[in-house]
Design goal:
ARM-type_fold, API5, mainly alpha, single chain
Length: 550
């Protein structure tokens, strides 16, 4: 009975304090009333709940009691009773009407993002959104400090992931509302993101890049220097200043994924030089030593990048491409299976590079292209090179026609099997085989179309969009995919058309559109060995994996 009386007394006093403060014209004179509210926050449960409303409401009028008030309120945030905690969390933004406590309150709310109760977590989200609307620049800065942390795995790591989720789910969708003034705040959040990229997983990097691309400052009408900035961000993530180690699977995954991500910006005019020169200097020389499942990825991204090279870069890369072409276009039948998808990639890259530096092919393939420059080397005899290259073209054309004929016959058989199939499972399996055959036929048709003009002594190189790469047109079947994550070997039966074209360990590869390739490149990317990059959030799914976070 005494406890109930005490409870009633505390509540009654709190209402008196609150009423006097509400009615006072100069509230700063009612120091005793505000002190009474603070003291009551340490009494009964109901008094604590009411004090959690009153302490932040009148906080700004009593700067001399600010520290005392904040400490008392934070004690309420840690109360066992959920109602008290939720009420106190809702009041936290009111302590930030002046900037002195903003950073501290943001830090506290970040720790509270781990709350298990939904109503409590919602209160935390609402409080953070309120702070963002009060002072978006400072609040974002404080939030991103928890993303940039470089401590070893600890509780801070959990906070980091919660902050990333909050930014992704709550902040990014409201960028038009929150990022005001637009130009200043888009630049500010871009700088914050760039600082955060020293230690991210592949999935986190993709999230940040998708957001940056959505900003007005990086839109389709953005000036060239903005597109260049995005490519430089991607280049930094690809570790292009690092010596390549062929045994470092994480680095090759990172490089391929980043290069795929950069291709759309090459289309908008950004330079591909740094990426392609890295491929030429570090990757192609050790191509044979690459994991089988990565070889086709490298050739595909080389093909997709080749239309956007400069003449100077084209001249430098062409010898490496021709060398690989000769490897996969044997002069005579060797008994080995030909990887037609490799040949398609290399012929496509060859055409687009040669279109930019045509006379470079004189000393590589024995052509007679005249530009009037000393690099034409017309006085030298390259007839043996021309004979060799022509024989290789003829050989691969014969193999391609033979494969095309088999695929066409196979399509007839698939159609018959489809008519006879009774179960949906059987029909789905046949659909996959038909799709592989269709993609294979596109590959064969592309090879024949690209090899035909190369027989002339002065060929016309294809430099337009008349050739559609076979995998760019592939459509995924409506069946569950067994494609493995990046870092793991994909099965040779992947529905990309290369399964029937690349046999005897010559590598598989994924199909689909450019976006599908980018997404696949980022699948399963977690933490691992990143050569001293902060805590080591690698891209290959090793170590403290967080690749499935998104």
């Amino acid at each position: 009975m005494t406890d109930l009386n005490d409870d009633s007394i505390h509540i009654e006093k709190l209402y008196e304090f609150g009423e006097r403060l509400n009615e006072a014209k100069d509230k700063s004179q009612n120091v005793a009333d505000y002190q009474g509210i603070i003291d009551a926050s340490k009494t009964s449960l109901k008094a604590k709940q009411l004090a959690a409303q009153l302490i932040p409401r009148f906080f700004k009028f009593f700067p001399e009691l600010s520290n005392h008030a904040v400490e008392a309120h934070l004690d309420l945030v840690e109360e066992e009773d959920l109602r008290v905690r939720v009420q106190s969390i809702r009041g936290l933004p009111l302590f930030c009407k002046t900037p002195d406590y903003l950073s501290k309150i943001v830090d506290i709310l970040v720790q509270l993002l781990t709350a298990e109760e939904v109503v409590e977590r919602d209160a935390v989200h609402q409080a953070l959104m309120s702070l963002l609307r009060q002072d978006v620049k400072s609040c974002l800065t404080d939030l991103f400090k928890h993303i940039c942390t470089i401590d070893e795995q600890s509780a801070e790591d959990t906070f980091r992931e919660k902050v990333l989720s909050f930014i992704r789910d709550k902040v990014f969708p409201l960028k038009a509302e929150l990022l005001r003034p637009q130009e200043e705040m888009e630049r500010h959040i871009t700088d914050l993101i760039k600082k955060s990229l020293q230690d991210v997983t592949g999935a986190e990097f993709r999230m940040f890049m998708d957001f940056l691309k959505s900003l007005n400052m990086f839109g389709d009408k953005a000036p060239p220097e903005r597109t260049k900035e995005l490519v430089e961000i991607i280049e930094g993530q690809a570790d292009l200043d690092t010596q390549f180690n062929v045994e470092d699977g994480d680095h090759i995954d990172r490089l391929i994924a980043c290069l795929y991500m950069a291709v759309p910006f090459f289309l908008r005019g950004a330079s591909s030089s740094k990426f392609l020169n890295y491929l030429n200097k570090h990757i192609i020389p050790v191509f044979d030593k690459l994991p089988e499942e990565r070889k086709l990825d490298v050739l595909k991204v080389l093909a997709e990048s080749s239309p956007y090279t400069t003449p100077q870069d084209s001249r430098q890369i062409l010898p490496s491409v021709v060398q690989l072409l000769k490897k996969y276009m044997p002069r005579k039948k060797t008994g080995e299976e030909t990887n037609f998808t490799y040949v398609e990639c290399l012929l496509y890259a060859f055409h687009h590079l040669a279109n930019k530096a045509p006379n470079a092919t004189n000393s590589l393939c024995g052509y007679k292209i005249v530009t009037g420059q000393p690099s034409d080397r017309l006085g030298e005899d390259f007839s043996e090179l021309y004979k060799d290259f022509s024989e290789r073209l003829i050989s691969v054309e014969e193999l391609t026609r033979g494969t095309s004929k088999k695929l066409t016959q196979g399509m007839v058989e698939h159609n018959k099997a489809m008519s006879a199939a009774k179960s949906e499972e059987a029909k789905d399996a046949i659909k996959i085989q038909k799709q592989k055959a269709t993609t294979g036929l596109r590959t064969c048709n592309n090879i024949l179309a690209m090899s035909k003009p190369l027989h002339a002594k002065t060929p016309s190189f294809i430099g337009d969009k008349s050739i559609n790469l076979s995998w760019k047109e592939a459509i995924k079947p409506s069946v569950p995919s067994n494609t493995a994550a990046t870092g793991g070997k994909r099965p040779s039966t992947a529905p990309n058309g290369s399964g029937n074209l690349a046999k005897k360990g010559r590598g598989g590869g994924g199909g689909g559109t450019h976006n599908q390739l980018v997404n696949r490149a980022f699948e399963g990317i977690g933490r691992g060995n990143t050569r001293g990059r902060g805590r080591g959030r690698g891209w290959g799914g090793r170590g403290r994996g967080r690749g499935g976070f998104w």
